[in-house]
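quick q for whoever's on today - can somebody do inverse folding on this one?? i tried earlier but teh output was garbage lol. tokens:
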């Protein structure tokens, strides 16, 4: 893209009301991976922050945060088929990014004032052909299926899709999911639609004519630079600092550390109040405590959990009771 075109595109964005903070996608450059950098098979949920994977079917794939990325980026989400399957019926294999309703409210989706918006992203695959995805409202009552073409194998390409905002559907504007963006890796007839490029009633992940990525053993699919913005123009990707992106991700999930030491308190419960790094979307669910070391305690618990913090409590069994460097993941994802 020429410098003149980039400036013109940014001028269009200014007319639409934003230069910074125009990208409604969090972690679109795949920088943040708090839960780990690889998983095989892929989890039903999150590895790279804010981009979940889900499947129903016998095929399997692995995930990784890869350093293979287009110029100007340093990370991508890599999906690799580890056991191929031709999807049918209710099978599906997807990458999904939920957008919080409070962030999506600028688009006024689901009413007469719905705004036009543009999705853009960088993609690279060992396969070529037609691929697809969708945007769905929260109850999945309306869907917009889109298609894009990967022209050259193993080559980074930027794609964009301009979408007219729907005047129907349910798009919450609170702290629940306002909409869900999906990149399809293959699906059966239940979740595929032949209507592409317009909003339709129903829950669809993509189109009936897409390439079933999951059907090719060893196939690779890389994704990064995902951006969704108001207006009919795909502007240059809005790069944010790692610290800024991490803080945004921590609203939905973060690693919390716990430390407590009691010199003399045998037989008593002792607690520390913990403040999170970032206020979370809602009171999180904590995973198992792990790591660090414990001594002379018979119980430990995370309790009084809110969106701002929690309390960590231990039961001391003798003097010099301690729990040092304990961690647990706090999950408040959509």
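ok took a stab at it. sequence:
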């Amino acid at each position: 893209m020429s410098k003149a075109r980039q400036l013109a595109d940014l001028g269009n964005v200014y007319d639409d009301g934003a230069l910074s903070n125009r990208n409604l996608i969090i972690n679109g450059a795949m920088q943040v991976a708090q839960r780990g950098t690889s998983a095989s098979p892929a989890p039903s949920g999150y590895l790279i922050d804010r981009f979940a994977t889900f499947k129903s079917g016998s095929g399997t794939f692995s995930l990784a945060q890869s350093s293979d990325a287009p110029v100007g980026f340093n990370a991508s989400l890599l999906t690799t088929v580890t056991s191929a399957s031709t999807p049918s019926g209710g099978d599906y294999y997807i990458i999904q990014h939920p957008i919080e309703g409070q962030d999506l409210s600028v688009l006024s989706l689901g009413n007469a004032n719905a705004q036009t918006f543009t999705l853009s992203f960088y993609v690279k695959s060992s396969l070529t052909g037609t691929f697809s995805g969708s945007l769905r409202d929260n109850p999945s009552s309306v869907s917009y299926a889109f298609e894009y073409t990967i022209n050259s194998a193993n080559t980074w390409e930027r794609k964009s899709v301009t979408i007219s905002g729907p005047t129907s559907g349910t798009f919450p504007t609170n702290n629940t999911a306002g909409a869900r963006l999906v990149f399809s890796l293959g699906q059966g007839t239940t979740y595929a639609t032949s209507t592409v490029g317009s909003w339709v009633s129903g829950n669809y992940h993509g189109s009936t004519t897409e390439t079933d990525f999951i059907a090719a053993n060893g196939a690779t699919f890389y994704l990064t630079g995902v951006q969704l913005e108001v207006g009919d123009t795909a502007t240059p990707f809005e790069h944010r600092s790692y610290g800024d992106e991490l803080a945004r991700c921590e609203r939905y999930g973060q690693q919390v550390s716990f430390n407590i030491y009691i010199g003399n308190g045998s037989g008593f419960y002792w607690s520390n109040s913990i403040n999170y790094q970032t206020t979370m979307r809602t009171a999180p669910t904590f995973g198992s405590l792990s790591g660090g070391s414990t001594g002379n305690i018979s119980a430990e618990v995370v309790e009084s959990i809110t969106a701002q913090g929690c309390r960590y409590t231990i039961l001391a069994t003798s003097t010099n009771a301690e729990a040092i460097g304990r961690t647990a993941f706090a999950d408040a994802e959509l």
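fwiw The chain has two domains: 3-249, 252-331. also DSSP finds three helices and 22 strands in the chain. so keep that in mind when u check it
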